[in-house]
Structure formats: C-alpha cells, structure tokens
Amino acid sequence: METGFDDLLDAHLRAWLGSWPPTGAVAVIAAGERTRPEWDGRVRPLVGVAAPERALLSVAPERADAVARVAGPLCDAGVRRAIVEAVGQAGKVLGRGVFRWSRRVPDVRQLPDAGEWIDADDPRVPDWLGPFNYGPVLVAWDDTGAYGAGVGIKRHDTVGHELAVVTTPRLRRRGLAQRLVAQAARRVLGEGGLPTYLHDPDNAASARVADAAGFADRGWSVYGLFDPPADA
Fold first, then answer.
1. Which residues contact 34 (CB under 8 A, 6 or more apart)?
2. Which of 47, 137, 155, 187 is the most buried (most CB within 10 A)?
C-alpha cells in the first residue's frame, strides 16, 4: 500500500485528519480536529481521505464509535447513507472528490506566471475569494482591468495548502487556469508547503487543469459532507 508520496504529504494528512496512515480498509478515528473551525470558519464533523487500497475517516469524537459500527466500503451507497446518519448529519450526502498533490509543478518557462498577488480585501476581489485564509489571493485581470480568473488557497495546516481556481466564462479555454494554479503551487512549494488540488470526479475541465499544472491523479479520494444536489 502507498501510504504517502513523501514526508510532506504524511505530515499534512496527520495534521488535517488527526492520524495517518489508515490501519484498516476503512479506519475511523476520533479527531479533535473535527470540532474546530477550518479554513473558512466552519466546523466539519467528518473528513476522509482514501488511498487506492485503504481509507481513513476523521470524525468528531462523540460520533466516532457510531461511525465505526457502520463503516464499510465507501463505494457502497448504503454504507455512505449509514455514515451520514451516524455522524448526525441527516439530509447531507457523503460526497467524494479526487485528491491530488504535487511536489513537481511546471516551471515558469513551461507555464508562465499569469496573475498578481493582492490582498484578499482589495475591492476588486470577487466575493468567492473572501473566505480563503492563506492571506493574499492570486488574480489575473482581463483587458479592461477587471477580474478574469483567480486562485484562493485553503491553509488546512502548516503544510497542506489546497488550491481553488475560478475563471470567468469569457476567459476560459485559454490555459489561464493552469498557469495560475502552477504559479500558486510554485509559491506554496517555495515556502516549504505542499500544494493540493481537489475536484469533483465529473469535472473534466478541472481535471485537465490539474493534469497540466503537474497534479497527477494517483487514484486517491477525499470525502466530506455536502448538501444533496438540487435535483436529487
């Protein structure tokens, strides 16, 4: 089993989840981390990460025993529903995302810088970038000087820094997102951190950005609680 890509990944997962690697096919741990606010001020009572063969669910301590009793293969819809009930989040769904990380991103000659680091409270910054707790945000401007695309960084712990990118529709399909992601990742790596990139498995555009920016899909997953789709 691949428990970690390197020491930085292991350090990030231990800090974020409370333990790593998993001790079984689907391990459940009682983690104080799940009772404290995360990067956006919200408390998330369950977070999970799965390598190709094993998974670890980090759960608020008062719910860990109940979740452990129903834990099983996370590909099973019935198991996922039981976990949601056990964690006391009826009405939510246990969703899966693709979990990627990188220590080797394209250099500036391959993917040149495309944005400017500015304060998150700059009036030109769109609202979606406001909650990110890293500090500055990375923004690319369009020809009129308005927001065109940006990257926010979720600082999960002292090591793991998750990148999120959004491009306005008029500037898509120009390679802007991959340049911004690579630029942000180079900064995180230069500061001794580990950049991560999470996305919906069905988001092909986001997957292409990740691939181009040096974030390979190694078959790892991330799990969390979400509202059900509006049409569910």
1. 18, 43, 44, 45, 46, 47, 58, 59, 60, 61
2. 137
| Token pair listed for 27 | 């391990």
For 1-33, b where at least 16 C-beta lie within 10 A, e where not — what string? Answer: eeebbeebbbbbbbebbbebbbeeebbbbbbeb
| Intra-chain end-to-end CA distance of the chain, in Å | 36
User: Tell me: the pLDDT tens digits for 138-170?
Assistant: 999 999 999 999 999 999 999 999 999 999 999
User: 224 pairs with which residues across the strands?
Assistant: 47, 95
Cβ burial of 158 (10 Å; 0-12, 13-18, 19+) is exposed
Tokens of 7: 């020491």
Q: What would the two tokens of residue 54 be?
A: 């094993």
Starting from the edge strand earliest in sequence, which strands make up the sheet with 93-101, in order? Answer: 26-30, 55-59, 46-50, 221-226, 93-101, 194-199, 160-167, 147-155, 137-141, 116-118
3-state secondary structure of 62: helix
- Show the DSSP H helices in 18-90 as ranges: 64-70, 77-86
Q: What are phi and psi of 175, to 5 degrees?
A: 80, 10
- Full-model pTM: 0.94
Q: Are 138 and 180 in contact (CB under 8 A)?
A: yes
Task: Residue 135: name the closest of 147, 125, 146, 143 by CA.
Answer: 125
Q: Using N-to-C axis directions, what is the helix angle for 176-190 and 204-212, rounded to 10°?
A: 50
